[in-house]
Structures are given as C-alpha cells and as structure tokens.
User: What shape does this take?
Amino acid sequence: MHDIVSVVDLVKRYGSALALDHFNMEIERGEVFGLLGPNGSGKTTAINCILQLLTYDRGEIRLFGQPMTQTSYDLKRRIGVVPQNVAVFEELTVRENIDYFCGLYVSDSASRKKLVREAIEFVGLEDYEKAVPKKLSGGLLRRLNIACGIAHKPELVFFDEPTVAVDPQSRASILDGIKQMNADGSTIVYTSHYMEEVEEICTRIMIMDKGRTLACGTNEELKQLVAAGEKIIIEADVPEAALLRIRSLPHVLTATYDDGSLSITCENGEHNVADVLDELTKARIRPGRIWAEPPTLNDVFLEITGRELRD
Amino acid sequence: MQVFKCAMRIIRGNIAFPLIYIVGLSFMGLFMAMSFSFGNPGGDFERPAYDFAVIDRDQSELSAAVEDRLHAEGNAIAIEDNTRQIQDAVAKGQVDYLLIIPEGFENAFVEAARDGEESPVMETVFSFYSMEGEFVDQGVNGFLGMVRTLLVAKPDASIAQAVEEASTFADERADVSVVESSASVSEADRFVFYLQWSTYTLFAGITVCVGLLVTTLGRVDVRRRNLSSPLSFVAYNVQLAAACAVVTLVAWAWTFCLGLVVFSEAAAQIGPVGLVLCALSMLAFCCVPLTFGLLLGQLGASSIVCNAAGNIVGMVISFFGGAWISLDLLSPEVATLAHGLPGYWYATACSIAAHASDAAAFQTVFGHIGVLLLFALALACVSLVAGRKRLQTSEAGGNRAAEITVGA
Assistant: This one.
C-alpha cells in the first residue's frame, strides 16, 4: 500500500539544539497513527515540518506519494490541521469561524454551506452556531477548533494534542469523533503525551524522545518489547518462606511484600496469576483482593529510556 | 475573498471603535468648527464685577482707602477674621480676591516710603476659578504705588493727603469702547478648521482599526492554520491589505464628505481644485495612520495598546499640527519641532489648498502631500522590518513564519 505520509531522515535544528534527529515516519492510508512522547520530544516540530510551517535542515517529506513543499497547494487542500492551541477568531461566531477556515479549502459557497453544517453537527455545536468563542466553555472551544480543521473533509488530518486542558467528558467526545472520522475514511495523525488516549484510538504508535524514534508498532507489538509483561498485586499475609517460593517461580521477575500487599512482576505469559495463586494455596494462604495490570506504554517508555513518560 | 470577508467581520465585531473614533469624533470636530469664531460684536465696554473680602487688622486710613477702592467696582463679601472662615472663603470660591491687611501696615508702609526701603506686603489670595483676582491685585498695588510715590515726592504731606490725592488720580480712567472686529470667519475657514481638527479623528480611528485587524489576523495560531491551507501567501497578504485600505478609505470618505455636507458653502468658496487638493491632502495623511496601524499589528499590539498608541500619538500629531492651538501662538522651537511630524504638513496643506489661487500654491500643496506620503512610506518600511524581526522569534512561531510578511 502507498504510504500517505513518508518522512525520511528528517533533521531539524533550533540553533545548537537538535529538535529532530534523523527522524523517520511512514503512515499508511486508513491508519490512526499515534505520535507519543513527553513534552519537548519533537512531536509538534515533526508535524510542523511535515506541514511546511518550519523549514528543516535535512530530510525528505512526501505526502500522498508526492514531495511536500511550501507551495504544494494541491496537497495542502487534502490535509486538515487541528493545532494544539485553539486557533479561532474571537470576533466571529462559531459558524463564521468554521466557514472561514473551510473557505480556505472550498471556494464553492453552496458546497461549503453543507460542509459547515455537517462539521457543526459532527462536533455537536448545533446549539452554539451563533455564539462567539468567548461564550464557549473550554471543551466546546476545543470542539470548535476541531470543526475548523476538519470541515472540508480532509483525507489526512493532523491532531496536535487536541485534548490538552479538556474535561474528561469532552475528551471522550473528541476521541469518539476522531474514531468516527477514521471510520469514514480519513487517515489520522495524532500526537499526545497522554498514553491512555493513544492506546485507545491509535492503530499504530510511534514513541519518540529527544527528536528520535524510539519504537514504532501496534500497541501489542510495543508492549512485547517490555520484559515485564504483567504486574500482579495480591492482598494477603505472606510469610517469608512463601515469598521465597513465589520468587522462585519460573516467570516471576520480582516479588516484594510490604504492609499486607504482595507485588509481583512477571514475564509475558498466560498462566502467571494461576501459578502464583497455586503457590499461595499450597502455603495455606487465603488471599484478599487480587488484581493484575498489563504493561502500559509508560512501561515501554521506561524500559527504553530508563525514565517515566511523564517525567 | 475569505480573508477580506473575515477582516470585515472583525471590524463588525469591534464596531464600537470606528463608531467612537471616526463617527463620534468627526461630529465633535463639526461642533467645534461651527463654534469657531474670531469676531467681536462691538458695543460698550463693561468692567467685569468681582467678589472680594478684606480682613482689615490695621484699621488705618490707608487700609480704609484700599477697601474703598475695592468697593468702588467689586462686591464685598463679609468674612470674619478667623482661620476657618478665611479658608472656607478661599476653598469654596466665595471670593475672587481676598486681602488681609496686617496690623501696623500703614506705619510700616509710610516708614518704608520715607526711608526708601521696600514696602511691606499684604497677604492676598486669588480664586482659582477666575483671573479677576489677579487683575484686582494689580489695581490695589497700583494704588499703593501711587501713595508711596506721593509720600516720597512730598515729604511733608501726611498719609491722609497722599491717600486722597492718589484716590483722585486712580479715579481717572481712560474711556474704553469695543470696536466691532473687521475679521470674520468664512465657511471655508470653518471647513479648514474641521479638516485640521480631523487629524486626531483620522489618526486614532484608522490606527486602532488597522492595528486591530493586522493583530487579529496575524495571531500565531491563526496564521499557522492559514499557512497550512492552500491559501497562498500573496493572496492572503493582498486580501489583508485590501481590507486595511477599505477601512482607511471609508474613514477618509466619511470624514471629508461629512465636512463638505455640513459646510456646504465652503465648496463654492474654495472651488473644485482646492477641494480636490484638500481631499488628496487628507487621503495622503490617512496613509500615515494606516502604516502606523500596520506597524502596531506587526508587533502584535493588543487592542488596548492600539487604542493607547492611536490616541496618544494622534493627540501629539494634532497638537503639533496646530489643530488645537495655532502654531503662531506657540514658541518658534515648537513650530520647528512640528515640521518633524505629519500633522503640520497636513494642516498646512489643507490651509493652503483652501485659500490657494495660483499654481505655485498648488505646487506647495503637492509638495506637502509628498512629505506625508514619505512619512507613510517610512512607517511602512519600519513595520515590515519590525514584523519580520518579530516573526523570527520562537514565540511568534519559528523560522518558517519569519518568511511571511503580513500585509506586504
């Protein structure tokens, strides 16, 4: 399949600082591609370079199989951008704002009218069409920001941290909308430093830090990279002898007991919880609450970089 | 035309600014021009009346004479000799002139006159509401000066004789009558005054509107969104420039036409060529706030900053253009300084254009228009450089944004 976005060996410097260090990225049509990394990792710089909002020192960027330049207006027409900050006009109403940005892509007023109406319905701003942005809550503003970026029904949409400073309800609504857009045929590039969001909506994820690609793959593929596959926590009175036997189980990496809580990290495996419970039963220990946590993308990031994603 | 339409909507969203600055202030200019007058109706001269109070602690012949002189033309207000009453009289403006004659004043006055020393002083307070007190005090001192002169000239004369003789002299007054002024103000003069006063109207109004437009459309996030779209840089800048030009032209047309409608007789007095030159002068002047607003916008000035800058600079330019006080009444240094500001060239161009009758005068007006356009050009260059510098900052959006010069 043709890559809809292809970035090869991209280098971007801000003075002496290296923002993108031989960055590579390939995105196929129909994907929801997540760019995950801590603040300052180069996500927004990468997006801005792809959109030609920033010049770059080296590398090649192709969109829809064609080289992307500052004057690639035909390519730009097929792209939608939802920037990190709300970029709308305070003086214009919700409808006028969407109409303005849609009008940059669609000149026919009849078609645009229909598209604007659909965008308003898509983000659920029907009741606020004539409201000016300062009358909208933070969540509604974010929805307006999205509507302005997607009203012209682009084939490729860049979402740059669209859920920053958004309440949980609006966040869920935004994520549902993105999934719907993808289902309708748009390819999505989604940057975030919220791993839960990326895990929820992205079909493929790239983890980056300090301008470099650390890992790329599906959620499951990335988690396979982590030695610690699962964390099991059991509330029970565990004597030292039982703790030693648990530690000696084949898939157990670590086991610690503290204040009535037994924490075990295991390698990837299908019977980790059953094996541990068997051992406890043999030791005549009656467990209280038991829960198991699968590895997260934060664990992946920790494994690769030695530090937390949110450090 | 999306950017142009958006710009017009932004102006609509801030309609209070053009309404206040361009419509409201132009009407103010009209009223001022209509009340503009040089002439005097003529008739008898009437001395202005004043309210006075005398605290006489000397109770001498001299103090009584001074009080009599004040009584002759003023209204005496009774005030007790205590601090509270005196303070109230002064603070509440009950009197225009308050005189406190200290005890032993007459003796000290006579001794000083005989010995050739300085006369003792009396305590006086003038009302801050009017200038009458100042003039009354000059009259009192004039009277005392005459008494002193008589005492010096006639060493044998008593104080009573000196006071009586001085009073006789003081009663002699020159006959005063008011002659009707031959100077009269024509409709053309009023129209020119209106045009000159519009310096402030146009400068503040256009600066605020254009500054607001360029700032709003040049916001980093919005600009990035625009740059991500298929809209070309040229199309964007052309539309923005067109919007700024429309704002300027509307302000110019409104201000000029309003003056022409109200002072309709001025058109006949000035003639078509003069009117066209006046209109061109105003249009050239309008280019200055247009570029100044552009500069503010390029610097990302907020609405408050645009308002403040438009008003303050507008007032300074108006003042130095002689719109409020004729430059003839100001010092030569101020007049020289005025040459460095566009208001002077505009005001002078209007004045010459309205009264011009020969080709030399018309050439002078065109020269002034040229100077105004140079002011605008200089500001435009500064704004483009400033905008470029600002866009290169990381805050404004990085190096790609630096390649875009809004409004170019």
